[in-house]
Design goal:
The protein is mostly helical. The protein is built from 8 helices and 2 strands; from the N terminus they run H-H-E-H-H-H-E-H-H-H. It has a two-stranded parallel sheet. 5% of the residues are buried.
């Protein structure tokens, strides 16, 4: 659903919720379109995914490919910093700011998150062959390194 369609759907109650990186909550003023509840469940590192058509990519010189690849890596690193700002600090100031807007903020306990992981395992299992186990292992390794 496009954001233009989502706003009135959220405001009217036709749609109950949405998912986005938390820093967008304040940018999009989600509290003004009916989002009075927020659950922080720490499920993703909010990476950016860059895609280039295979034929277009092949038409570029190796030097241009390297420049685009490096720019994508740097943009991804910046996005991670932006997505986590206010969430990685011990007092989680972004969640406090959102709560200050009259939004009920719920942070899942480790046990609650573990239950969620368990009941969604079938989705993980279903899509692993499509995503590729090598890529999945790399992502899990990167996430584990960032959460320590």
């Amino acid at each position: 659903m496009s954001w233009a369609d989502a706003q009135p759907a959220l405001a009217s109650g036709a749609v109950d919720g949405q998912e986005n990186p938390l820093f967008l909550f304040t940018v999009l003023k989600m509290q003004n379109v009916g989002q009075k509840y927020l659950t922080a469940w720490g499920y993703v590192a909010d990476p950016l995914i860059f895609v280039v058509n295979k034929e277009i990519w092949a038409s570029w010189t190796p030097a241009d490919q390297a420049l685009v690849r490096q720019a994508a890596i740097e943009a991804g690193q910046e996005e991670i910093v932006l997505a986590r700002k206010g969430l990685t600090e011990a007092d989680k100031p972004l969640l406090k700011e959102i709560a200050g807007m009259g939004v009920t903020v719920t942070q899942l306990s480790e046990a609650e998150r573990d239950v969620f992981v368990k009941v969604t395992r079938s989705v993980y299992t279903k899509w692993t062959p499509t995503v590729g186990s090598d890529l999945l292992k790399k992502a899990e390794k990167a996430i584990a390194a960032r959460t320590k």
